[in-house]
Amino acid sequence: MHQINPPKYVRQILFGLQARSHLAYLVGGCVRDMLMGITPQDWDICTSALPEEVMSIFPGSKPTGIKHGTVTVKIGNRSAEVTTFRSDGSYRDHRRPESVTFVSDLISDLSRRDFTMNAIALSADGMLSDPFDGVQDIEARTIRCVGDPKLRFTEDALRMFRALRFSARLGFTIEYETCSAISECAPLASELAPERVRDELEKILLTTRPETLGVAISFGLLKRYIPGSGWSTPNYADIAKLSRKPLTRWVTFSIMLQKYGYIQSAHAFPELLRLDGRTIRCCADAEEMLKGDAPQDKLGWKRLLSHYGVDSVACAVAAFEVINGIECEKDFKAVLKSGECSSLKPLAVTGDDLVSLGLRGPEL
Hints:
Blueprint: H1 8-18, E1 24-27, H2 29-35, E2 44-47, H3 51-57, E3 62-65, E4 70-75, E5 78-84, E6 86-88, E7 100-102, H4 106-110, E8 121-123, E9 128-129, H5 134-139, E10 142-143, H6 149-155, H7 158-170, E11 173-174, H8 176-185, H9 194-205, H10 212-219, H11 246-259, H12 268-272, H13 277-289, H14 298-308, H15 310-324, H16 329-338, H17 351-356
Parallel strand pairs: 2-5, 10-11
Antiparallel strand pairs: 1-2, 1-8, 3-4, 4-5, 6-7, 8-9
Helix pairs in contact: 6-8, 7-9, 7-10, 11-13, 11-15, 13-15, 14-15
């Protein structure tokens, strides 16, 4: 087990709560990451203190999720989320509990969490509370739901995507019963907001294991967005060869889906997921460009750049290389590096400049 040493401001919050006779623990992803030797990006604390008590102990705190008992505590220029122990009410929309009840014990709070590896608490003095054997699952590199996996996914359907995202990011295996529950509960994913699905897919897309996207498709989690079954399975793992830029990877993924018959058009898919206009435009442009062959000379590249712009051509080149296995990026970059203009925009002198110099008609 790796040494656990949270930063000073986090310990200050923990000790500040304990000094007023409240229980306080680090919990969730930060504990999991520390156990794995990964530096946490965010710090979450659970406590027996009510939100109003937390805010009275730490002046300047913000009630960022007061309905669910969450307060953001700021120490200097650093912050951590502090949430009161709670149990959740019914989940009628398969996403958020309709109500929460604040409780006094840690175990009740841990029992509502998604996976055993995220249901471990750490006190300020370094003592672990692990009622669901999360440490053992971390050591076994296994993703397992807390309690009944079908119930966990019925409560919050986004947890199915989270399971795949953790698998892709950490290289963990999803255990059998949790996998079976994902397969059974997959239709619930269609009720999730597209933005939430998009965010989870992007996190998977940017890992070193983008092939996990194929697993999501095979489970049926994306039926709302990918209605077809395809005539062949793309090699999604090849996306890992690309730089970790969302634009390039989204375009390549969309082109793959279109080429192999999963979707009708590469731009309609990101539109359904409500991606930004730039990404949608680049998907549409790349789809059009990839209907033909890559340019064979500098003039051909400059014509593409003039018509579609650098972003779209760069994405099309990346997708072309990954999907068709034909190298053309070198020629494309050589044109860019030459500094030669492919459109009027980069020119140092504009028509207005010439007019201001007195040129008219044929002279202009």
